Structure formats: structure tokens, C-alpha cells
Amino acid sequence: MADQNRQWLLTSRPQGQPKTSDFEWRVDDVPSIEDGQYLVRVLYAAMDPAIRGWMDPSGNYMDPIPLGSPVRSVVLGRVVESKNPDYPEGMIVSGLGAWSDYVVGFPGMLGPVPAEWGHDFTTYLHPLGAVGATAYYGLFEVAEYKDGENLLVSGAAGGVGSLVGQMGKIKGSKVVGIAGGPEKCAWLTDELGFDAAIDYRATEDLSAAIAEHFPDGVDVYFENVGGPMLEAAIDNLGQKARIAICGMISQYNESDNPPPGPHNLWRLLVTRSRMEGLLVSDYMHRAMDGYAEMNEWIKSGQLKFSVDVREGLENAIDTFNLLFTGAHDGKLLLKIGDE
Amino acid sequence: MADQNRQWLLTSRPQGQPKTSDFEWRVDDVPSIEDGQYLVRVLYAAMDPAIRGWMDPSGNYMDPIPLGSPVRSVVLGRVVESKNPDYPEGMIVSGLGAWSDYVVGFPGMLGPVPAEWGHDFTTYLHPLGAVGATAYYGLFEVAEYKDGENLLVSGAAGGVGSLVGQMGKIKGSKVVGIAGGPEKCAWLTDELGFDAAIDYRATEDLSAAIAEHFPDGVDVYFENVGGPMLEAAIDNLGQKARIAICGMISQYNESDNPPPGPHNLWRLLVTRSRMEGLLVSDYMHRAMDGYAEMNEWIKSGQLKFSVDVREGLENAIDTFNLLFTGAHDGKLLLKIGDE
User: Fold this and answer.
1) What is the ipTM score, two decimals?
2) Residue of chain A with shortest Cα separation from B60
3) Can you tell me the mean pLDDT for B153-159?
4) A146 and chain B: CB distance < 8 Å anywhere?
């Protein structure tokens, strides 16, 4: 147990990509807890694009991170001290924490993970955590995916996208992913079983490339990127298609000067298609149902995933910015404490 | 009964707003009919923005009008000769016809209107026709409107928009319409009972104007226009809001150079909102249910409407173009034959 609590505080609202000067590195004593609380040693933090939104004054879909406060992040950790019988010492918990060595938990802030399933802890921050729940409920509920439908996924080599595509394959779909670079594309087709992958960096006409794979149109488009990819996908929607908007990472650093939206929204009208935003928090109260099904797929080898674990709380900001350069391989996690 | 059949044929694909030179005025004999067919004297044609889409090579959501064929249009007319017992002489019918004095009907092409309800014939081309069905099913089914929700309508002084707003008032909503010009806005508030109307021509910051009326956000946005209005509405969406896309008239003449789409689609994500296209043809098989309810509202004076009837088939093109200049007052109809 570390005897200090290191943390990254947000001290100014980033313009575009966050810089180290937007943060303060502070070292405090390990916090003490009161009745009903529990102390969590943070082991891993998930580097999620949503964090960038929480740094903005609007906060997007949560309260903004207050200036002077630690950077909010989904974490996994171990209860190391407890004044709450529901959170006994040694329990592995996950939920909203911070870029810090320790967080003080209150009831409902973090929840136990099914550690008894015996996976690596990182698994509970990817398929068996909010990432997996986003993929599962986004595909099956928001997009109302039906077995065998034509499925297109952007950000396909990312955490959510890679799971979505594999779920489509498990359910009998033709699945095409959009990703950046030949290595990611090869991973999608060779390792994960996608039918095809489109390397957007090497593709001049994205819309035509999609049309080649789906001449009859796309039934479900799972959107992780936004911008030109969304427009290309809308070009290729079939009748009564559904777009689940899970993320628009291309716009997160551009809130002052966002790129123009798709020119072709009228196609939603002529195809009677639907586009809907997805927040996983709407589904977390029943996420264990999805986790249980995904757990079976993981055990049978049908659902694969990749984590890219970087080390050291001191590297949080540089690690976080890898999200926006694409220079990571699988779900990006930061290891903060030893298991 | 006229002894000639005058018609407007589409002879070239219009660029932007249609010009007379895109059409041919042809006068033929009154067509003869075969067994199973019926001859309809066209009395009124509805001037619908959708017709513009059918003139394009893509046709948008129907087959394009073939070059050399009469311009497709929703019409109302009287059966004047019949070789089909389901369509007796004298029956008043409506459905897809053409800009012509006569159309030859086949089973299912046109259908009887509930003339026994005793309304002016024009009523069956507005609230008790496809326009009314679009408003009714768009609001209650596509937008899943619930009583009392905050309702924003663009193109509010148009055929569909004016009905949508009144239905919201009947169901207890706060309703704000967006329209062009003080006369239209006054009509919405003074005659139709809208809570407020925003004159987009006199409003610099449309988004702020909407926010003033709906500080808690818009629950349902009924979209008839597209372009900057859509972006302003998206700025003001509440949580779990729904956008029914009924039309995007601002884009119909711009298919070669469409205006950019909304910059703020990420707000669909953070509000978990939904945007969905609406085609009334999906609902026509059960439209009589909606008509029956609207008939009661019309009889009780709760649902008002305005038709702008222009005269003469020869004026079809100029009349049609009034749709895009806004220089009409209520649902635009062209009277082609005497009742």
C-alpha cells in the first residue's frame, strides 16, 4: 500500500487536445474515510474518449470536472479499508473514480465486479465493463439489431467497435469494420473474423468502398467516429436502417470549431432510417445480463479482445492523448497500482 | 367533361428550381380505359415538395418520374367512366395521379375518400389526406409524442406543420412554431393557438430564440425544413428527445450542392436522442384511423387548416415553385377541373 496519494487535477479547460499545462500533479496523504465509506486502491484507469468531454465547461453528458478536482475516470481497484459492510476489504470494484492512487468510495459510487469468473482484472474494464455494456446494449437495444443484418462499424479496432463486430458475427451477420491502418484492418479480419475491413486512411472514396461491400445497403451502422465516416455510412443506408451513435471521437477536441455535419441527412427520410444516441449509463442497472452472455462468448473463444496497458499514473496525460492519435492497440488502460 | 386531356410532361431533369423549359405541355385525346380500369377527371392536384425529389434521377423515395411522362402528383378527382365495379362512376377518389386533366386508374392506384363526412373536397387533400396522415402518424408514431411534451415545429405554417402544432395543443403541449414572416407567425398564434411563433427571417440567433421558449429543452422536434433550423433545434434537445424528419425542403433544390449538415450531431449522443425519417406511405393502410380522429377535431373546431387554391393546370409550374419561395398561405393546391 502506497503511503501517498498522487493525483492529476484539472486546472484549466483544455483547448483542443489536452496539454500537461492543463493539469496539476499533486501528492497528498492517503485520504481517511468516514462511516459508510470505503477506501479503494486504484489498480487501473480506463482511458475513455468521454473523459475529454467532461473536461469541457459543458461537461457534455455529465457535470464537467470542476477545476481543481481530480480527473474523473472509470477505474478498477481493490477495497483496502472499509467502514461499510457492503464493501468488505479485498473486494474488487469498478466504477467512476479518478486519475489518482486512491479514491474514497460512498455507497453506489463503485460496484463489485464478478471477479469469481476468474478473468484478468483488465477484462472487467473492457468486455465485462462499461465498454462491453456499451457494445452489447448499443447493438441489441439502441440499434435493434436482428440476427443476420448487414452491420457496419466505425472505430472498429477500438474497444467498443471490436466487440460490436464480433457480436454481429456470432449472430450471423456480414460485418465490415472501418479502421485506420493495415495492421488494425488485418487484426479485424484475421483475428476477429470480420468479413472485411476498410482502411479509411488508404481509401479515397469511403462511400464507394462501403457500397462495394454492401450493395444492398447497411442495416445497422454502429458509429464511434463521426465526421466524414457518418456521411459515407448514411450514403449507404438500406431501408429502415438504424444508426447507433456511441461516440464521435473526431469531434471531441473540436468543440469550438466542429467539422460540418453530414450533407445527406435527407437520406434518413427517404430510407425511413433512425439515428439514436447511446449512453451506457441507461443500461448499467441491468448490465450483468449482458456480461453473463459475453462471459460465455469469452470462455468459448468467440469474443476476443485486446487491451493496451500502459504503466504509471505519471504518464496519464500522454497515455490519454493516444486516444486521439490512434497510436494504441486495443482498449487503452493505464495501470496505476500493482494487483 | 373536357374533351381533351392536357398534361405537363417532364422532359428534362431540373437543376435547382424547376423551369418551364424542363417540361412539355401536351394536349391529347381523353384516354380510353380497359376492363378493370376507371377514368378519373382530376379536380385538384396537391403541390407537395416531394414532387421535386421525384424529378431527380434518383427519385428519392420513389421511382423517378420517367422523362417524357406526366408529372406525378397526389390528386383528387371524380370517376367519370368505369370498367371496375369497385370504382363506380361518381366516386370521389384520391391518390397518386398526375398534372393532367385525366388519369387512368387501376385497382389500388387511387382510393375513395370519405366524402360522406361532408367536407369540401380540398379537405381530403389536406387534413383528411396524406398531409394529415403525415402529421398524425409522424407525431404520434415516429416521434412517439406523449401528452404535454414540449413541441417545436418547423415549417409550422405549412400543411403538415400547422396540423402538427394544433395536435400538440389538443394534447396539452406547449407548442412553438418556426415560420417565415410576421403574417404567418400571427396566424399560428392568433388563429391556431400556438403558444409562440419564431419568425426565422427576423431572428438572428435561432438557437437562442428556441432556448428562450424551452429553457428545459425540446422533447419533440417536427422537422419540415432542414438546414440551419435542424441545427438550432438540436442545440435545444432535452433528454431522450425525438426528431421526426418529415421533410427537408431547404435541400430539395440543392441536390448537387447540399448545404452542410448540422455541426452538433454529438448532442444526439449526450441527450440520448433519436432522429428518424418518416414516409407516410408506411401508414396509409391504416390512415382511416387517423382521419376519423382528425374528423372529430375538425368538426369541433379544434383542428383548423388553410388551403391556398390556385387555378388552372396551365399554371402548374409557377404554382409549384411557390413552395420554394414561401409565397403561399396554407396548403397549396391547384384546381384543375370544376367540381
Assistant:
1) 0.80
2) A270
3) 91
4) no
Place of cell 416531394: B50
Tell me what pLDDT residue A270 has.
86
Whether A60 shows a pLDDT value over 70: the answer reads no
- Contact residues, chain A, for B226 at CB < 8 Å: 265-266
Cβ–Cβ below 8 Å for A263 and B266: no
| pLDDT value for A53 | 87
B-contacting residues in A 93-112 (Cβ below 8 Å): none
**Interface touch A269/B245, C-beta < 8 Å:** yes
- Residue A339: predicted pLDDT: 79
Q: Where in chain A is the domain with CATH 3.90.180.10?
A: 4-126+306-335
- Classify A113 in phi/psi space as left (phi over 0), alpha (psi -120 to 50) or beta: beta
Closest C-alpha among A166, A165, A171 to residue A146: A171
Q: How far does the CA of residue B327 sit from the closest CA of chain A (Å)?
A: 24
**Amino acid identity, position A95:** G
Q: CATH 3.40.50.720 in chain B, residues?
A: 130-281
Facing residues of A108 across strands?
Answer: none
Distances from the Cα of A223 to the Cα of A25, B12, B164, angstroms: 35, 39, 31
Contacts of B274 in chain A (CB under 8 A): 274-277
Q: What is the pLDDT of residues A213-267, one digit of tens each?
A: 999 999 999 998 878 899 999 999 999 999 999 876 555 554 556 677 888 888 9
Residue B73's φ and ψ, nearest 5 degrees, are: -160, 150
Partners of residue A278 in chain B, C-beta under 8 Å: 269, 272
Q: What is the pLDDT of residue B248?
A: 66
Report the chain A residue with the minimal C-alpha distance to residue B240.
A277
Q: Which CATH number fits domain B130-281: 3.40.50.170, 3.40.50.720, 3.40.630.30, 3.10.20.310?
A: 3.40.50.720
- Give the pLDDT confidence score for residue A20 in this predicted structure: 96
Does the structure show a pLDDT above 70 at B257?
no
Average pLDDT over residues A32-50: 94
User: B4-126+306-335 — its CATH code?
Assistant: 3.90.180.10
Query: What are B40's three cell numbers?
Result: 378519373
- B260: closest chain A residue by CA: A263
For B182-235, what is each residue's pLDDT tens digit?
999 999 999 999 999 999 999 999 999 999 999 999 999 999 887 889 999 999
Q: Exposed e or buried b for every residue in A297-330, given b needs 16+ CB within 10 A?
A: bbeeeebbbebbebeebeebbebbbebbebebeb
Choose, out of A235, A264, A266, A273, the residue to mutate when testing the contact with B (most B CBs < 10 Å): A266
Residue % of chain B over a pLDDT of 90: 79
A2 falls in which pLDDT band (50, 70, 90)? low
Q: Do B272 and A278 touch (CB under 8 A)?
A: yes
In degrees and rounded to multiples of 5, residue A314 shows phi and psi of -65, -20
Query: Across the interface, do B274 and A274 touch by the CB < 8 Å criterion?
Result: yes
**B168 or A130, which is more confident?**
B168
Q: Indicate whether this model's pTM tops 0.95.
A: no
Quick one: average pLDDT of A265-292?
92
